[in-house]
Design a protein that fits this description.
The chain is an alpha/beta fold. 49% of the residues lie in helices and 18% in strands. α1 links the parallel β1 and β2. The structure holds 5-nitro-6-ribityl-amino-2,4(1H,3H)-pyrimidinedione. 5-nitro-6-ribityl-amino-2,4(1H,3H)-pyrimidinedione binds next to β3 and α3.
Length: 163
């Protein structure tokens, strides 16, 4: 049986972190959690590029451009959509998640999603490092693993072509 899976070693990998400014109280914590995880797994600070966009709605468009730049092994989308009294939440959350999924299907690099969709600010805080982990950290770990499994596929292709 040949099992192919990515390691959690980030040494030598480059990451693009795309962060929404809206709800920055939360998204700054997601960014801190993601950067901490990448560094703890061996990424160099100089290999982390942070790009900011106005809100989560704008995330997929910037993420797509960052992924297409070819500068990174993985790109990570970080945003927080918090329900208010209007249906705006549903539109922003749906478009952002669809958009990130579309980028993931088209990109040559790994794409991971650390977008919180919560009913309340309290729930969002809980998922941004207070009580229920940090969604940015989770997204960073997923980005490392996916980048490594994609890398092993690319390596296998090169090895086959060389024979
Ligand atoms: N953007 C967010 O990132 N989170 C939200 O909760 C949010 N809500 O609820 O309004 C939000 N709206 C702004 C949106 O992402 C765009 O920036 C805006 O519509 C301009 O295109």
């Amino acid at each position: 049986m040949n099992v192919h899976e990515g390691t959690l070693i980030a040494t030598g990998l480059r990451f693009g972190l795309v962060v929404a400014r809206f709800n920055s109280l939360i998204t700054d914590q997601l960014l801190a959690g993601a950067a901490d995880t990448l560094r703890r797994h061996g990424a160099a600070d100089a290999d982390l590029d942070v790009y900011r966009c106005p809100g989560t709605f704008e995330l997929p468009a910037l993420l797509r451009r960052v992924a297409a730049s070819g500068r990174h092994d993985a790109v990570i989308a970080l945003g927080a959509v918090i329900r208010g009294g209007t249906p705006h939440f549903d539109f922003v959350a749906a478009e952002a998640t669809k958009g990130v999924a579309q980028v993931a299907m088209e990109a040559a690099c790994a794409v991971s999603m650390g977008i919180l969709t919560c009913d309340t600010m309290e729930q969002a805080l809980e998922r941004a490092g207070v009580k229920a982990g940090n969604k940015g950290a989770e997204a960073a770990a997923a980005a490392i693993e996916q980048a490594q499994v994609l890398r092993s596929l690319a390596g296998a292709r090169r090895a086959k072509g060389a024979r």
